[in-house]
Design brief:
mainly alpha; cytoplasm; MCRIP; MCRI2 protein; 0% strand; nucleus; 45% helix; 100 residues
């Protein structure tokens, strides 16, 4: 399946302002090695997800096994995992608002 794209909703219905050209000059440049590493990790993770789905449906007896804690830590009872995509979206919007 293709990678999901982040969708940023307008804040208070306002249209985002266009950033000046000088800000775009500070964009990160990714090396070929970086892009290859990201592609490798993405493709490997896609394979793991497919194998997990296959093992859940009974297609394969071997493959990756999802770890589940047998005796959960009581200190983590109220733990709420962070939504990393939401956090990145907030950081992105804050950067845009600080530049305008």
């Amino acid at each position: 399946s293709p990678a999901q794209k982040l969708v940023f909703n307008r804040v208070n219905g306002k249209r985002p302002q266009v950033l000046p050209q000088q800000v775009s000059a500070t964009e990160e440049c990714y090396t070929l090695a970086h892009e290859e590493n990201v592609r490798f990790i993405y493709e490997a993770w896609q394979q793991v997800e497919q194998q997990l789905d296959g093992s859940r449906s009974g297609e394969s007896a071997c493959g990756p096994v999802q770890y589940v804690e047998k005796n959960p830590n009581p200190g983590l009872k109220n733990f709420v995992p962070i939504d990393l995509e939401e956090w990145w979206a907030q950081q992105f919007l804050a950067k845009i608002e600080n530049c305008s």
